Amino acid sequence: MGLTRLAHIVRKEFLELRQDPRLFGIVIIAPIIQLTMLGYAATTDVRNVPLVVVDQDVSSESRELVSRFDASPSFEVIDGLSSTDDVDRYLNTGKAWMALDIPQGYGEQIRAGRPTTVQVVADGTDANSTNVALGYASTLVASYARELASPSGQPQAPLVSAEVRVWFNPQLESKDFMIPGILALLLLVVTTNLSSMSIVREKELGTLEQLNVTPIARWELIVGKMLPYAFIGIIDVLLVVFVALLWFEVPLRGSFLLLFVMSIVYLMTTLGLGLFVSTISATQQQAMMTASFFFLIPMVFLSGFVFPIENMPAAIQPVTYLIPLRYFLVILRGIFLKGVGLEVLWPDALALFGWGVAILVLATLRSSKRLA
Amino acid sequence: MNAIEVRHLTRRFGNFVAVNDVSFDVRAGEIFGFLGSNGAGKSTTIRMLCGLLQPTSGSATVGGIDVVRDPEGVKRRIGYMSQRFSLYEALTVDQNIAFFGGVYGLSRERLARRRDFVLEIAGLRGRENELTHALAGGWRQRLALGCAILHEPPIVFLDEPTGGVDPLSRRRFWRLIEDLAAGGVAVLVTTHYLDEAEHCERIAIIQAGRLAAHGTVDELKAIFASRPILEVRAADAVGAMRTLDEMPEVEKTSIFGTAVHAVLRNAATDVQTIASRLEAKGITILSCGIVAPSLEDVFLDVAERSAA
Amino acid sequence: MITGFWKTIAVARKELRQIRRDRRTLLILLFVPAFFLLIYGYALNFDIRHVRLALQDNDRSAASRELVSAFVNSGYFDLVGEAPNPQSIDDLLDRGDARAVLVIPVRFGADVAAGRQTLVQFLVDGDNANTATTVVGYAMGLVNAQSQRYELQARIGSPAGPILNVEPRVWYNPELRSTLFLVPGLIAYIAMLTAVVSTALSIVREKEAGTMEQVRMSPIGPVPYVLGKTAPYFVVSLISSMSIVVAAIILFDMPMRGSWLVLVGIVSLFLVGALAFGLLISSIADSQQVAFQVALLTSFLPTLMLSGFIFPIASMPTFLQVVTRIVPARYFLVALRGIVLKGVGPADFLPDVIALVIYAVVILALASVRVRRQWA
């Protein structure tokens, strides 16, 4: 009996959705487009850093140094200046990020075998990239220095060098890290506000009252409203994973089944969140504001999506335990990149499941059919 | 046992008392009218009786079921139609019927029968596949009623069901309600169209949360038993009203378009005397005579008295 | 013209009253952004410290211990334990107990003393490529520096040190605090979202409630309507955005090296475009649900990822760089960083100002065409 009523609610939701083909298109197609674009956006490779050179020496030695920089894929020499005064202009407008300042007398020092220093001026605005770029510059100069110092004039290896091996992501592909995150975020955005808006809309239009007057049970109403969006969410998951695997060639080293099951658990939390928002909002505008500012935005920043949680100050880290996205990201990245399963991921899976149950229970308790 | 029994029902919102110690009964097969201005407490009362709102104090039974203790039980035995004709705009006529039928748990055969019934009374045969939001007011109204009674409830609550609907549709709607009542259904209607309230067997007038008057239409009109109403139609209605106000025989006046209603203190007052006094003041009388009190007169009188 | 102005005021006043009544929305629009800046600005940074490092020292000589302490003393790495065998390395990295492992070979000390070339292994968890790159950079730098020290001891190369040195000088942000990079981006992000979200539902709400008909019947006219509806949100967003800027200066020592006047001007220009964008969405959507979805999908993730907030645009593939041209936050961010960190004026980021102007004008035009068409 309860199930037939449930089926009717689900059917009604789908009929309503069908009437708004735009919405349908948005929730199915837009995520794919988003993923396609955003997957490419995430990169921290530092390449072709625009560099200006102030060569105050103009000797064959200085030109040699400049050509080393030019030949490197990390840098692109865009201009040569005669004095350091012009450097301002380039860095202020952002035309160049770095400037190489070779002092007068450089060539002579080198020929005489005396130590000399060149200056590199860097735009520190993008601290991260600057760090990396300065590192490249140091390495380039250091190896050139060894070359100059060796008696044979041949490149000489340092005494101690490091062989770097990167686990899980040998090419250091940012996209492999970001795309699972984007998947999670897209799911969150689409399903949370679909479910929150839909209930509040019925509140606003008055049809919710009409439903409350019927003998329909609370759980039937809630589950009936959530199921269509769960269904849409699952389709989204499959589509996005499909694109990630085939187009972006993100490796899927773990179990697809586990991925699917965990996605469903995650959907429990996102839909539950939407439901909860709808119980605390009277109008759709309120639902929208509440959902985006109090839930979506914090989740983007504090879940480990882009900014590593380990970097966060100790005071904030406990807060991140309250964010379901945090656990799902660990699970996703574990399955995609590390190829691990429940034996490693069980704490996060449990936390995610617990979160889902808690929020659904809380939302259900709040959505009474009778106002007190 | 009455279909609806209300005893000292009260509802507070913070310091504001929306419904204040209201008691009345509604019998099966009776059309009971709930009159009152906006904000008087009509909708709040209905919501409590439907199990949508918890009373602050007092009790009520609907269909023999205690509203406070078993609101869900109540919902199985009632039909409810809100002022907004709550239908799903994006669904077709048929889909709305099927949905509500499903929610009320109608079997397939019963749903088919009831569907035919609703389409018939609403006049929507042949229009089953039209989208609800494309329907004009009167059609939507009747569809909403139909969806509310799919499960043949013995008690029906209608909250301002004729708002924004043309007079012809309104009349048609009231015939439907009368048919319902004739079949033994208890109908509680709220309205602020006083002319429609004449369809009701008994009426309660709610004013600022309190039950200001209560009884059959005739019983209510009996307050004018010893105070006949004189109706004067004049081109200068305002002038006529002012003149009548000054006369000692007149208790109070009210104006309805070009007609002035003057409540006379005494049944013995001579109409002709009044008429000549008006003419003496230069007011051209189109007609002048005692009329039977309308519910509007009753309502104004009650409103004035409870405000005092 | 004059009557148009007064009509606009009338619409604006009504909208303002509606906003004031929805207290929660108003509070959210005004105060939450600054509050969140506090949290996120504090929480978010790319500075990598306390990287969990595990050690496999197969040599245990004075030289290897010196190398290890170089790592630990740098402040970048925290030694969390030993990894006695390859399996334990796998475990540590799999479980995330360590993010990096340093493996020192058996004859390290002897080789170094004798001047023989030797190799250490540095294994890093690459799942977060951002941090991995940086961590690798640190490690390489440390190894390099240590190598030079050993070279000196073994009397390889010149006693005075390497023949060529590089002295880095960092402008605008000498300590390379990533906060200074992120906070302006955060400001842009929050400002964009606040503006779009506040106007995205404004028109479509009236459409859904049916009061749009009434408005069209009145002698208001589409232009005063659009302007009047946007004006209160402009004021609210401007107050909100400037309060975030002030909060950032106070709480995060964000410098303000440029002109306040120019800053307010740029913020206003950006907000106009963002509000207009929300309005455009509102005029196109027929339900609030659709409007909200579109607003989120076009602003939420794209502004985060494509505006230069976190990922440098210059590093993106070309086709994506073209796409970023329609993200207004991109231009705003360049201008904002320029004013705040570099202390420059509009002359130095003129192309971005022009882009913002074009954006605002185009979107406003589109929105009013749309509204006008629906008005008739």
What does this structure look like?
Chain A has 372 residues and is of the alpha/beta class. Chain A is 65% helix and 9% strand. Chain A has helices at residues 2-19, 21-41, 60-71, 87-93, 106-112, 127-149, 174-205, 207-213, 218-246, 256-279, 284-302, 317-320, 324-338, 342-366; strands spanning 49-55, 75-81, 98-102, 116-123, 160-167. Chain A has a four-stranded mixed β-sheet, with helices on both faces. In chain A, helix 10 packs parallel to helix 14. Chain A starts with a helix and ends in a 6-residue tail after the last helix. The model of chain A has no long low-confidence stretch (mean pLDDT 84). Chain B has helices at 42-49, 71-76, 93-103, 108-122, 137-148, 167-182, 194-197, 217-221, 237-246, 271-280, 295-307, and strands at 4-13, 16-26, 31-35, 57-62, 65-66, 78-81, 155-159, 186-191, 202-207, 210-216, 229-234, 250-256, 259-264, 285-291. In chain B, helix 3 (93-103) runs parallel beside helix 5 (137-148) and helix 4 runs antiparallel to helix 5 (137-148). In chain B, 44% of the residues are buried. Chain C is 68% helix and 9% strand. In chain C, strand 1 (51-57), helix 3 (62-73) and strand 2 (77-82) form a beta-alpha-beta unit. The chains are: A alpha/beta (372), B alpha/beta (308), C alpha/beta (376). At the A-C interface, helix 2, helix 4, strand 4, helix 6 and strand 5 of A face helix 2, helix 4, strand 4, helix 6 and strand 5 of C.
